[in-house]
Each structure stands twice: as structure tokens, then as C-alpha cells.
Amino acid sequence: MPTLVRDGEVTEDEWTYGAEPESGSETRTILNMEDFVKQAHVELHGVCLDSSVEIEDVIDQVKQAALIAVNFATFADGRGLSLAVLLRSRYGYKGELRAVGEVLPDWTPYMLRSGFDSFELADASAAASAIACMQRLTDQYQASVIQPNPRFRRSSN
Amino acid sequence: MYRYNKFDQQFVQGRVDQYREQTARYLAGEISDEAFQQLRLRNGLYIQRLAPMLRIAVPYGTISSSQLRTIAEISRNYDKGYGHLSTRQNIQLNWPELEEVPDILADLADVGMHAIQTSGSCVRNVTTDHFAGVAADEEVDARPYCELLRQWSTYHPEFDWLPRKFKIALNGSGSDRAAIAVHDIGIEARKISSQEAVLDIYVGGGLGRTPVIGSLIREGLEEHDLLTYVEAILRVYNRYGRRDNKYKARIKILVRAMTPEVFREKVDAEWEHLRNGPGTLTEEEIRRVKNDFVPPSYENIENEEILLGEQRLQNRRFDTWVANNVDPHKQKGYSIVTLSTKTTGIPPGDVSDIQMDAVSDWSDEYGYGEIRISHEQNFVLPDVRQSDLLELFVAARKQGLGEANVGLLTDVICCPGGDYCSLANAKSIPVAEEIQRHFDDYDYLHDLGPLDLNISGCMNACGHHHVGHIGILGVDKKGSEFYQISLGGHAGNDASLGEIIGPSFSRAEVTGSIEKILDLYTQARQQDETFLDCYRRIGIQPFKESVYANSG
Question: Do B136 and B179 share a domain, yes or no?
Fold first, then answer.
């Protein structure tokens, strides 16, 4: 059972994956791109993107989504990080940005700094490990999505 | 050299703690082999044919005497008492225990060192001219840019999981000693006024299976734009570089597939969003880092032409050593000394703990406590008073570091090869040794003049065989070790890739073939023509005929 970490803690997941949202249901649904674009009120739904997506081509369709999930095909697929950076920094996406697929604890710090705010881990133990990983080495040289200024523009050393 | 501030120090220590904890979770079975492999690679740890290998970062080849002493000490405590100078200016230990690596990293962190990103698909150790800051022909000292790039690329949120490894080299001298044409990004720094420098950016060069000379994509970049422009390149590569085939994953393949023109357009479009943003270097930051590279307070002394002339007349070995191993310095009365590790019988680049201690002591005594490592796998002492040269030469000879062969045939660049590396098709070190043993006459070597002989044990090309004037590549032919010879490669200005001379040779035939190549050169050369110039004039055909003459 995947365990969701959001804002640094294990959280109940109100989202499910599905082909069609159930009408009148309280549960919110993450759809693939094809189903997502058919919805009348996209702002109520989530959409799942592959890390290889050409974001420039789909941004107009996905920017209203309540949640964007980015699927990491393998744990070392760094494309998802660039995708997140673009969504947050270039397109100003403010909704939930979720890392899904092969999400391993030691990779979550990179994801967090690239703009993801929720992470689907394999189980509770991986989730606990991810939370610990994200609390390490929190001061960095570079600017990132969660740190607008590089070290040299911050306080003197 | 760059001095760590409190933040730099805290950061490397934090990275050690992080890796220690990762190792513990791996040993407890909580991290898979596959995932841990990636985590250890980003801390320089390979699992090799015989044992793990730890690659310690020596940023742009600059190391202090106390840091080198620490590495000597580590090699005694955790290893077999020697280290290996690599072709990326780093130092490798060949026998550390996986369980002890966190302790080694902690010892390194205490002296401001680390093994971060010395392997893995990330931005690797940035390299530059090993004479940076002291070379008489230098226009711009590239070390501050190297350090700025080191900091920027360290544990980068977005670019630590690239399609493949990524190597950046900078050069700021008239003669390119950093081989910038064969790097993922090569940067040429040049002066446009007494105060201002600009950067020319090349991308998509590289060796390996598909050797390519890099393409110029931006001329005259202002220095404050360095990081944002490199960021734009990395983002394009991270998004579009191939991930389905590791042999096609380097940026050179992407640049070639897109064409350099289209690649540049993509980068420029990306850069438009980044330029003048927070990643832009501030004047204050550039000044802060440059301040760490101001020259030491040299003594006001004169060149020692008369003294050196007398000493050279009296000691022929010293004379040859000065001719080959000593280079002109910016500062009057000083010279740059290269200490060759290429002694016959010792694998190129291998140095003992005793040698490392000795080099550290000399750098304190005959300099300002700073040492360089060249990509030719030698030590460099950057600030030696000319009046001390003879004394240093005598001391270096006693330690087996006084070979007068820098830039000559026996100054072989060589990867660890089949003796150590699990990727190799063939051994490389014994081939180097056979050649060094055969060509042991200094007068002959000196007469041959500048000659780069580079040997790689497989097509990953760690021994840079493509850019050797003579290149040797180990290949596997039905389970036996064979060697392909190429001619005419060159790593400096007007870089070129070698051309394969013909069918490969058995190991027993290699030295004889090299001899035939050299014989042809000595017959064909005009006046002072170097091997490379001679080859470029007459082409490969005469060499081919000479080497394969009687092989029917």
C-alpha cells in the first residue's frame, strides 16, 4: 500500500486514480491526460504526466488542475525534476505537485527542492525514511524552487 | 587557493553524515543494490574488479600540502599505502573497504576535501589548466570560475540525475592545457581589457566510443552570466538527452542529433528565462572567490639565467630535466616544475604514501604549500624559485619523481586497464611499461621531441587515446587482448582526433610497431618538425606502409 508524504509528514490520501471521476463522490480522482482534458471542470481534478512530457505543449491544459502527478519511470529519471522546476518557476503552478512511480526515500530531497510537495512512497517504512532524508542537508549552494536565492545572495557566511 | 568558509565546511560534513547513514541503511538491507550503487557513485565509490575504488575530488587539480599529507595518511590507514593520479586531476584509492568509506570521507572533510560527484551521471569535478594562475602565457586565471561552478553544481536539486556523466573544463591560456575541445562543456576565458574577461562556450565534445570535437555555441559570455548559461545548457540536456541507451546518452550525441545550431537556439531560448535572474553572479561574489586566488607574496628576485646555465652545463640529467619538466612562470625568478610519475616499472599515475609526503614537504619548502595534479597524471609544483631547482631535482630523483620525460614518449597517459578495471577489454599498464622499457635512451627520447602517447584499455577512453599523437586502444579479439593504434590525435589548441592506422596488433607486436612509426617519423621529418606536424604534413599512408610492410 503506497504511503503519502505531504508537507513533511505522512498524510491520508484523499485522491485515487481512475479513468472517470465518480459523480457526486467526495473522493478526488487523478486522471490520465486523455481523460483529464474531457472534463468540464478540470480544476476539480488531478492529472498524471510522464516525466518525458513536452510541458510547453500541454501547459495550457494542465495549469488549472488541482493536482499534477509526475510519474518517475525509474528512480534516477532526472527529467521529472526539470519538469517540476518549469511548472513551479516558469508557469507559476500553485496546486499540489506529486511525485509518483519509482519514488525512493533518498531521492525525495531533490524532488522537494525542485518543487514537489507530495510524494508517494512504497510503504510506511519508506515514508519514514523519506521524511528523515528531507530533513538532512537543508542548506544548499543553489537557489531552488523552495529557496529563491542562491547562497551568495543570502546572509554573509 | 580557495579556502572553505563555515558554510562550505558544514556542507561537506553534512554530506559525510548523510552518506554514513545511507551506508548503514544499505548494510541493514533497507536500500537495494541498484539504488545504493547510485548513492555511492555520487560519493566517488566504485566497486571494481578486485576491490572498491574511491575517487577523491581534487577540484581543478589544486591541493594543499596538508590535504595531500592527509591522503597519504588515509592510504596508510585504510589502503595499501599508495594512490593513483587520474586523468581528471583526481586521486584514487584502490583498496578501501566499503564499510570504512564513511570514516575516510570524514577524515577528508576535516581538511576541506570530499569525493562528491567524482562519479555517477552528474556534473563531475571541473578541470582546468594545471598551470592556472602561474603560467607565463596565461590571459585569465580560470580557477575562480571553476570554484564557482564547483559550488553551483554540488548537490544540485535538478541536475544530479542526468542521462550520463557531465564533464566541464576551462582554460585561460594561449595554449590549451585543459583539452576543452573534448569536454561536454569547454570554456575558454579570454581578456577583453585589463579588468574584464569574457567566456567562449563550447558544447558536445568528448571521447569515449564516439569521439567529437565540441562546437562553439556562445562567444563572449559575460562572467556574471556563467552560472545561468550553464544552467540553461544542463536543463536542455537533462530534458532531451537520451536515456534509453547509455552509449548514446552523452550531450555530444544530443548536440549532433539536434545540430549545434538548433541546440544553441534551444539553450538561448531557455537562457532568456534565466538571465538576469537570481542565479546571476553578483560582483561581490565574483570578487570574494577571486580574492582566494590572488598570487602569494612572491619575493622580488631576478631570473637565474647564469646560475642555471652553469648548473645545466655541469649536470646533463639536470639539463634535460629543466628542458622538459620546467615551465616559464609569470613571476620573475620563479619556475613551474612538473614531477613525473612515469618511471618505468610503475603504473603511470601511481604514487606511494612516501612520495605524497615528500611532494607535500617540497611544496612547503620550495613554494607556498600548494600542489597541482595534471591530467597527464603528474604532480606540479607551481612556485619554485629558480635557485632551488637543482636541489629539488636531486631530492625528486631520490624519490623516483625526477624523470626528465614530461611531454616525451615515455610520459604515457594510461588508464588502470584490465589489471584493475572491470570495464577493460585489455591490460594497459603492462603495455605502457613495455614501451617505457624499450625506449629508455634519453637522447633518443629528447631527439623525438614532444610526443603524447595515450593508452586506453577499452573504448570508454579513460586514457584519452583519441587525442594522443600516438593512441593505443585495447580491444577484445575472440577473447584475446589486441591493440589498435591511431595517429595524429591532439588535445591542445587545434585539437584533432587520431586516425586508426590499420588492423590491430597482438601485445607482442605493439612496441615493434611503435618503433616503426618512430623510425618513419625520424626519416621523414624536416628540420625541427614535431611528430604531430610531420604527421599532419605527410598523412597516415607512409606510416601505414612502414608498419605493415612485411606483414603480407
Answer: yes
Report the CATH number at residue B369: 3.90.480.20
Sheet holding B350-352, edge to edge: B45-47, B52-56, B91-93, B82-85, B350-352
For chain A, where are the E strands, in sequence order?
3-6, 9-11, 15-17, 28-32, 46-50, 67-72, 96-101, 118-121
- Helices then strands, counting H and E runs in chain B, come out as 18, 21
The CATH number of the domain holding residue B199 is 3.30.413.10
- Interface probe for A, chosen from B152, B158, B223 (most Cβ of A below 10 Å), is B158
Write down which residue in B81, B110, B139 finishes a domain: B110
A142, A146, A149, best to mutate vs chain B, most B CBs in 10 Å: A142
Quote the domain boundaries for residue B171: 127-291
Among residues B182, B247, B187, which one has the least CA distance to residue B211? B182
- B442: confidence class by pLDDT, cuts 50, 70, 90: confident
For residues B42 and B191, membership in a common domain is answered with: no
**Whole-angstrom Cα Rg for chain B:** 23
pLDDT at B49: 66
Contact residues, chain B, for A114 at CB < 8 Å: 157-158
CB contact under 8 A, B39 and A143: no
pLDDT tens string B2-37? 999 999 999 999 999 999 999 999 999 999 999 999
Is residue B373 domain-shared with residue B431, that is, in the same domain?
no
User: How far is the first Cα of chain A from the last one, in angstroms, to the nearest whole number?
Assistant: 45
Are B277 and B383 found together in one domain? Answer: no
Q: Rounded to a whole number, what is the distance in Å from the CA of B200 to chain A's nearest CA?
A: 23
Residues B287 and B351 in one domain: no
Work out how many CB contacts closer than 8 A connect A with B: 98
Contacting residues of B for A141, CB less than 8 Å apart: 11, 151-152, 154-155
pLDDT at position B492, please?
A: 85
User: Do B175 and B270 fall into the same domain?
Assistant: yes
In this prediction, residue B422 has a pLDDT band, given cuts at 50, 70 and 90, of: confident
- The residues in B 25-54 lying below 8 A from A, measured between CB atoms, are 25, 30-31, 35, 38-39
The total domain count for chain B is 4
B278: nearest CB among A82, A104, A143: A143
* Cell (9 digits) for B12: 561537506
Query: Where exactly are the structural domains of chain A?
Result: 3-153
Mean pLDDT of chain B: 95
pLDDT at B12: 97
CA dihedral B14, B18, B23, B26 (to 10 degrees): 180
The reply to whether residue B10 touches residue A82, judged by beta carbons under 8 angstroms, is no
State whether B354 and B287 are in the same domain: no
Q: Is the pLDDT of residue B230 over 90?
A: yes
- Of B291, B325, B359, which closes a domain? B291
